[in-house]
């Protein structure tokens, strides 16, 4: 079986088995067994929903630390578009970029610059023949969701690399060209708003990643802020346009793509609703779907430090201020942006590899599900009665995990015990029965 890297992990010590997370997971990847949550590796898409909803901070995102920079001679930071909106309006993007150079990086390549370039590539793609709607491949959690739950829709994905990947590639090429360094001596680090991007770096969809590590935005934000509060820092003139920066919040990608009829959806459960609609054959009047797993877009990622509603306003102002054309040059050749390999399904929701066995299990699971109470209470540790039924037929759970079933069985058992207690042992005669009924002997 294929091994999967995951940036979302469980801290078993902190987990209280409260079952809060199991019902929010979009791929039903969590079970609670023996009082602790368990993540089913093959199903998890690293969307970070469980990080948000756990009241005990028992789910966490593994990211790279700044110490990883030490392994390289030349270190390049890739700030995500959502990073720009984390700072108060009086802090200019030029001083934020300057501060990045003072916390350990030698160079910066702005991901919004790459986002603008990718927008143009998508726009050119949409003018060619394409399945309707074409779906953005920029959010790795949405792409993995499609691999797991909507494999039939994978052909709708725009076959373009994400702005992060393009930024990484352009940054390394520039450093090789300008500094004369061998590529392996250059470390390229994305400042990430979410765990899904960490997974995209560690286990890319196809080929290899142009990025060497992903560091949490909250960690970098704290360091940059401390640097800005201290002595004055260098400033770097941002190259990004408002179109590229806008990618950081929901709807911004469409603003930059600007081709045909466009739909934007954010929040993983809303994304599922729209993908279901496409699966049913709807939405063929839409050319392009921007879909982001986090509510509000990347500014709503689990690793951003600031309130997404506040950031949304700041982003809007930055978009206006930075105009509609980047100062940077980027390749015009469409092939430069194409995905290195097609994105394949991850068939993990089937009940068995053998088709005949899978069908038998399906029938059995349907029968069990119909007999379960249908309350989807989660007390069994599975996210729904249907999921428990599937767990049972796969041998991962028992019917007695359902507390209603258990209670019913106990009631039947109790009734049987009462009935049994009234039955005479075979060796006893009529007198025993009379004594039990209160008749007894009267002398
Ligand atoms: S929400 Fe999930 S991970 Fe958090 S304590 Fe409850 S069961 Fe454990
Ligand atoms: S990260 Fe998302 S897919 Fe993975 S277990 Fe948490 S909620 Fe489920």
Automatic annotation (TrEMBL):
Source superkingdom: Bacteria
- Transmembrane as a keyword of this entry, yes or no, is no
GO MF, any single term: 4 iron, 4 sulfur cluster binding
**Residue limits of the 4Fe-4S domain?**
360-419
Swiss-Prot/TrEMBL keywords: 4Fe-4S, Iron, Iron-sulfur, Metal-binding
Q: Where is the 4Fe-4S ferredoxin-type domain?
A: 6-35, 36-65
- Biased composition of type Basic and acidic residues is found at 430-443
**Annotated protein name in UniProt:** Ferredoxin
Q: Which organism is it from?
A: Desulfotomaculum copahuensis
Organism taxonomic ancestry: Bacteria, Bacillati, Bacillota, Clostridia, Eubacteriales
């Amino acid at each position: 079986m294929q091994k999967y890297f995951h940036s979302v992990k469980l801290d078993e010590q902190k987990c209280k088995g409260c079952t809060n997370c199991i019902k929010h997971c979009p791929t039903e990847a969590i079970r609670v067994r023996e009082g602790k949550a368990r993540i089913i590796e093959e199903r998890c898409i690293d969307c970070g929903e469980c990080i948000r909803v756990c009241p005990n901070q028992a789910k966490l995102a593994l990211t790279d630390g700044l110490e990883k920079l030490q392994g390289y001679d030349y270190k390049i930071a890739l700030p995500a578009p959502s990073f720009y909106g984390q700072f108060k309006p009086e802090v200019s993007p030029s001083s934020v970029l300057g501060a990045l150079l003072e916390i350990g990086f030698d160079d910066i390549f702005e991901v919004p610059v790459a986002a603008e370039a990718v927008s143009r590539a998508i726009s050119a793609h949409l003018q060619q023949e394409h399945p309707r709607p074409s779906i953005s491949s920029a959010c790795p959690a949405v792409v993995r969701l499609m691999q797991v739950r909507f494999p039939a829709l994978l052909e709708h994905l725009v076959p373009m690399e994400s702005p992060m990947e393009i930024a990484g590639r352009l940054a390394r090429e520039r450093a090789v060209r300008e500094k004369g360094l061998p590529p392996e001596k250059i470390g390229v680090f994305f400042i990430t708003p979410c765990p899904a991007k960490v997974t995209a770096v560690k286990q890319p969809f196809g080929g290899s990643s142009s990025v060497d590590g992903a560091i949490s935005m909250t960690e970098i934000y704290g360091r940059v802020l401390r640097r800005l509060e201290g002595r004055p820092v260098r400033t770097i003139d941002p190259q990004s346009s408002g179109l590229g920066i806008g990618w950081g919040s929901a709807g911004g990608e469409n603003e930059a793509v600007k081709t045909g009829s466009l739909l934007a959806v954010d929040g993983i459960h809303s994304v599922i609703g729209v993908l279901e609609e496409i699966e049913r054959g709807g939405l063929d009047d839409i050319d392009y779907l921007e879909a982001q797993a986090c509510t509000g877009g990347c500014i709503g990622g689990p690793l951003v430090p600031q309130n997404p509603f506040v950031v949304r306003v700041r982003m809007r102002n930055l978009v206006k201020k930075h105009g509609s054309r980047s100062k940077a040059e980027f390749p015009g050749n469409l092939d430069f942006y194409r995905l290195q390999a097609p994105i394949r399904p991850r068939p993990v929701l089937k009940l068995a590899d053998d088709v005949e066995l899978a069908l038998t299990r399906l029938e059995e699971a349907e029968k069990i599900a119909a007999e379960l109470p249908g309350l989807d209470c989660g007390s069994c540790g599975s996210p729904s009665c249907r999921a428990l039924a599937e767990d049972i037929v796969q041998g991962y759970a028992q019917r007695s995990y359902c507390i209603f079933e258990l209670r019913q069985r106990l009631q039947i058992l109790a009734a049987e015990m009462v009935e049994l207690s009234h039955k005479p042992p075979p060796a006893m005669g009529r007198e025993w029965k009379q004594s039990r009924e209160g008749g007894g002997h009267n002398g």
